[in-house]
Write a structure and sequence with these properties.
There is one protein chain. This protein has 64 residues and is of the alpha+beta class. Helices cover 25% and strands 16% of the residues. The strands form 2 sheets. A two-stranded antiparallel ribbon has the order 1-2. Strands 3-4 form a two-stranded antiparallel ribbon. A hairpin with a 6-residue loop joins strand 1 (5-6) and strand 2. The longest helix is centred in the last third of the chain and has 16 residues, at 38-53. The N and C termini lie far apart (66 Å). The structure holds zinc ion. Residues 7, 9-10, 12, 36-37, 39-40 line the site of zinc ion (ZN).
Length: 64
């Protein structure tokens, strides 16, 4: 029974995929559906959370 999907992020075949919501900045790839395996999906979710909570990076120290 072939009912597998392929993760668009790591490329493995998996029975479980999540359709990844595409951000407005990814308009170019809007027509291409993105699927993530469980691991990549959780990773993406985690990255999104951390990127939201992460404060803006401070400017690099200037050496005179
Ligand atoms: Zn994956």
């Amino acid at each position: 029974m072939k009912n597998k999907f392929r993760c668009d992020f790591c490329g493995i075949e998996t029975d479980w995929v999540a359709r990844v919501a595409i951000a407005p900045s990814y308009n170019r790839m809007y027509s291409e559906p993105k699927y993530a395996c469980r691991a990549c999906h959780e990773k993406k979710e985690h990255e999104r959370e951390t990127s939201i909570r992460k404060p803006p990076s401070p400017p690099p120290p200037q050496q005179a």
